Amino acid sequence: MPRIFITGLGFVTSIGNDAATVTGNLRNLRHGLELYPPFQKPDIPCKVVGTVKDFFTDSADQEDWTFPARYKIKRELLRSMAPNGLYAHCAMLQAIEDARLTEADVGNPQTGLYAASGGSPFLTHYHHERLLKVGVMRCSPLGIVSSIVGTLNFNLVAAFKIQGSSCGFSSACASTAHAIGYAYDDLVLGRQKRMFIVGAEDGNNDAILPFAGMRTLSLQGDPNVASRPFDRARDGFVGTGGGAVLVLETEDEVARRGVTPYCEVLGWGQASDGHNVAISHPEGAGLRLAMENALRATRVKPMDIDYVNAHATSTTIGDLSEVRALKAVFAENIARAAVSSTKALTGHGLSMAGAMESAFCALALRDGFIPGAAHLKEPDPACEGLNLPRTTLDTAPNVVLKNASGFGGANVSVLYKRA
Amino acid sequence: MSDSVSHSQPSNSTKQPFPLPVKPFTPEDEATLRESLKRCSPSTFEAAVQFRRTGNPEHMPAVVIGVVERFVEPDLRAKLKDADDDLRLIEDLGIDSLTMMEIVILVEEVLQLTINNDELRNLRTVGDVKLFIDCKIRGLPLPKPTKFLPIEHIGSVMPIQPPFLFLNEASVNSVSANGKYKITGQEFFLQGHFKDNPVMPASMMLEALGQLGVLYLLEGAPAEPGKVVGPNTIFFTGCEGVRAHRVCRPGDILSISIKPKRMKMPLATFTGAIRVGQEKAVIAEEITLTFGFVDAPVAPVPAAASTESAAPAPAAEGSAPAPSSGTN
User: Fold this and answer.
1) CB contact under 8 A, A75 and B39
2) Which of the residues A59, A138, A155 would you substitute to probe the B interface, choosing the one with the greatest number of B C-beta atoms within 10 Å?
3) Catalytic residue among B7, B59, B153, B193
4) Full-model pTM
5) 3-state SS, residue A81
6) Consecutive 10-residue runs of chain B (328 residues): their mean pLDDT?
7) Domain co-membership, A66 together with A102
8) CA-CA distance, B270 to A256, in Å (whole number)?
9) Domain-terminating residue out of A189, A222, A257
10) Residues A211, A354 share a domain
11) CATH at B49
12) Residue A76 and residue B102: Cβ atoms within 8 Å?
């Protein structure tokens, strides 16, 4: 079986818009959460968001947007983008440069792209309102492609002349972990030589506030403690937007191009809870199975794992499920692997989470550190026995496990190894 | 297009100075208009305000061109500054069908009119767009679409034939005709014009303009019901204000254009111009042809439907209007 590597990364995240800044913030556990101005109203009880800096995308008119000057994007491309499309486009440009890919490396039948975002509720709302106000035939011709789920792959495949496999994934917060898994399969099966994995979210009012109805958002007013996975006092997740891109390539391509990869993708596993539309299984049954499937597929033993980048979003129920699943899988080795959720720093990137946090794992594997469990003051008693380092460890992990869980009880686990 | 030949003003405008009923234009409307046109030039907005206040179609071209300009990539906008009506939307301005929809929606909103999908697909040049909107606003029948005619089609309809035909390709609509001719050097008269120095005779350039006039009469001119212009009734009668500006030689590609000025049986008068690239070659203020109508031939089943086997196609809604569809 050919080996698969991560060769390029791109970031537009609440903790930085380039790999160096993100690495620094991961190492030093500096979070990207702020009091989000649109939330500072009496009727909005949640206050904090993992904000994207240096981008302005609050207008429904793309030509009003501003973004860092190093990105040159023509109107022709911009007009069909959602905010998450802009973030992803910029992260794509970074990843292509980072992986040292030429135009020919990107636009060919052997290179594909899998993507996920929640679409753009913001633009959907705007275009529907216009439809009602100015009439059916005066809707923007690009209203659909800029706002429905799939907007990311439509836009990026066209903009970057992708000719290989392309599609979107919609398993909510497991989406881009699924995308990585299936991209890995395509590469192993010889269907593709290179895959882009793209996750992005608007991270604005319309994307985040609907979660308030489920009572899953943190109501904390202090950005320094709002997101604290595994903590006894956690009270919900903090939303975030942005874009994250990974480049996966076969070992032949890595050798041909003579690039140094971040890390190896060992393989993956998935399983479903079969339990509830929105609530995770109390024992983490599906996630446990997903981890076991990933371990079996890669012939990795729990005792070989140095770091688990947990899915834990800082919700009361979800974090517990993951803790129970981890205990079941690791059993007597539970104290060996360091566990942390970097959502303490970024907030929860929803569809983007799997890709963004896998990219964090790639940075940790290359640079030899393990991000600590930020904001953790008093661990939930259920975490007894877990190794939750409060500060970043300067030990280089060899094998890393990444979990992601989404609505409907979809669970994905991916294993990465130092290259 | 301002001195359009074929359209008479409708006579229903007894009180209104302009044919469209002018809805009251409120300050709110003006604010909405300003927002809609915020990325257009100030003069575009001003023209739109004037149009909405008065209904005067004179302001319309400035609005339409201003809206088109807003959607054209900045480095191509210069082309619009002194564009003639032949500037092509797709080839010259890089406007794709989605951008065309953006333009249409904004024009609809600003000028308060509705444009159907099947009206759109015939708009190929800036002139087509201006004429189309003008007709919409004046409530006139829509112009026939520009027909692009390849040499085979030209040869089959023209009474003039090689080696005396000086058109390689042409496009014709109801207000203009454009053609191209490449001087090959093989033209028989170049052997003697001049000795060891082949130069396209100015008289032949006039002939080329006249031939394009013939093609216009046969393919573009509005005819009377049941009548068509008879190919054998057309003759050259005169020209005025002819100036030759540039010597044209083998290898030059002549861009020939005519616009009808007056048309009343049996005389049709055109202005004409020939360019080579951007250089003026020949200008004719007036070229006049005489023509006559003959009975239209009893229409056989349209040739365009021949591939559709025996099924009697319903009068081709949405399909290409004429046998010119192969050229784009």
Assistant:
1) no
2) A138
3) B193
4) 0.80
5) coil
6) 41 50 83 94 95 88 90 85 77 88 90 81 81 82 81 94 95 89 95 94 96 94 84 95 96 95 93 93 96 82 45 39 36
7) yes
8) 67
9) A257
10) no
11) 1.10.1200.10
12) no
